[in-house]
């Protein structure tokens, strides 16, 4: 059996935050942000209107509707996010509740940052190919905006991230369509290069909250190091996966890369000698939504007719940890 992607779903908060809006919050400019990342605007949640779980719910409802399925047609949920509604339980069970399942199914929560969709896809693929489950719902949802340092001090990170949710449904099939192979990896020695350290399990709630003014309370990133490793690992992962499965770069019909930086993706495609016309991007409008970027971007490419059934599609991502991976799919 193969694990075939049936549909995609998406949800984005209605509030648009442009680079011009950020100029009013910090010492930055539209030109600087676009040159550095390719981002023109992003979506941020409004208090009381959207949460991590509510966005996930809407994205999953969209995927179910497009597949003409209902919640009880799903056999398992895999959910991923950096910061969820609660410390515990995970948002997977909140999603199960909100979607209205009448049966008990497993809900697995993962935290693999920007590579999370590929990690989730690898688990869903294994579950389906083993015969354990017939249909698996995968979702990533992210609220970054509430935990960004919106001052000049935090601009290198804060201008990059947006809020949103993306989902997809996979099901067992005996056709040639489906996931061909997936590669995932990590290199923990670089865990401190891109991270958010507090509040963690070592955070004492009784102590003085001066740490709110410290760097540990906000995301930290060594941008040049991340950029260098992202280009190298994404190129390496996809090249090895193509070689392993006896495909040439020219056999690839379309590439969906994690939407972190337009320059990173351009360099990866250039090194792989894959033309820019064979990709689609959303980072210019949505920013980096971590695990949600690949389902958001591929879903949009499918809706626009850029990706068609039968196409050989490559997915590739890199994120904190460092974690990375790639996938080959006969869509």
Kindly describe this structure.
The chain is of the alpha/beta class and 331 residues long. The protein has 2 domains: 2-174, Peroxisomal Thiolase, Chain A, domain 1, CATH 3.40.47; 180-330, Thiolase/Chalcone synthase (Peroxisomal Thiolase, Chain A, domain 1), CATH 3.40.47.10. The chain has 10 helices and 13 strands. The chain has helices at 19-23, 30-37, 52-67, 91-99, 116-129, 155-158, 223-244, 262-272, 283-286, 293-303; strands spanning 2-11, 16-18, 41-43, 76-80, 107-110, 135-142, 164-173, 178-186, 194-195, 220-221, 254-257, 312-319, 323-330. The chain has a 5-stranded mixed sheet, with helices on both faces. Strands 8-13-12-11 form a 4-stranded mixed sheet, with helices on both faces. A two-stranded antiparallel ribbon has the order 2-3. Strand 4 (76-80), helix 4 (91-99) and strand 5 form a beta-alpha-beta unit. Helix 3 packs across helix 4 (91-99). It is globular. The two termini are 15 Å apart. The model has no long low-confidence stretch (mean pLDDT 94).
Offer a concise description of the structure.
This protein has 331 residues and is an alpha/beta fold.
Mean pLDDT: 94
Q: What is the CATH architecture descriptor of the largest domain?
A: 3-Layer(aba) Sandwich
Strand content: 15-25%
Q: What's the CATH C level of the largest domain?
A: Alpha Beta
* Helix share bin: 25-40%
Q: Helix segment count?
A: 10
N-to-C terminal Cα separation, in Å? Answer: 15 Å
Largest sheet: number of strands, sense, barrel closure: 5 strands, mixed
Side by side, the strands of the main sheet go 1-7-6-4-5
Name given to the CATH homologous superfamily of the largest domain? Thiolase/Chalcone synthase
By CATH, the topology of the largest domain is Peroxisomal Thiolase, Chain A, domain 1
């Amino acid at each position: 059996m193969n694990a075939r992607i049936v549909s995609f779903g998406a949800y984005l908060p209605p509030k648009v935050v442009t680079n011009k809006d950020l100029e009013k919050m910090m010492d930055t400019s539209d030109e600087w942000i676009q040159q550095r990342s390719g981002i023109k605007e992003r979506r941020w949640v409004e208090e009381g209107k959207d949460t991590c779980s509510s966005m996930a719910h809407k994205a999953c409802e969209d995927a179910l509707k497009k597949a003409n399925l209902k919640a009880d047609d799903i056999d398992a949920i895999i959910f991923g996010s950096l910061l969820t509604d609660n410390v515990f339980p995970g948002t997977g069970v909140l999603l199960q509740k909100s979607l209205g399942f009448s049966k008990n199914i497993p809900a697995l929560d993962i935290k693999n940052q920007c590579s999370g969709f590929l990690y989730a896809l690898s688990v869903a693929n294994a579950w389906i190919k083993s015969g354990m489950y017939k249909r698996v719902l995968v979702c990533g949802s992210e609220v970054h905006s509430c935990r960004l340092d919106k001052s000049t001090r935090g601009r290198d990170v804060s201008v990059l991230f947006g809020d949103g949710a993306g989902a997809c449904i996979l099901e067992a099939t005996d056709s040639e369509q489906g996931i061909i192979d997936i590669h995932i990896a990590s290199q923990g020695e670089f865990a401190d290069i891109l991270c958010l350290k507090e509040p963690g399990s070592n955070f004492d709630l009784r102590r003085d909250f001066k740490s709110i003014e410290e760097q540990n309370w906000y995301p930290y990133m060594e941008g040049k190091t991340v950029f260098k490793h992202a280009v190298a690992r994404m190129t390496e992962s996809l090249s090895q996966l193509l070689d392993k499965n006896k495909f040439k770069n020219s056999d690839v019909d379309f590439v969906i890369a994690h939407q972190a930086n337009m320059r990173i993706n351009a360099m990866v495609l250039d090194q792989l000698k894959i033309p820019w016309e064979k990709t689609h991007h959303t980072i210019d409008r949505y920013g980096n939504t971590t695990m949600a970027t690949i389902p958001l971007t591929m879903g949009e490419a499918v809706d626009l007719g850029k990706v068609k059934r039968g196409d050989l599609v490559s997915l590739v991502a890199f994120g904190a940890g460092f974690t990375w991976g790639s996938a080959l799919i006969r869509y």
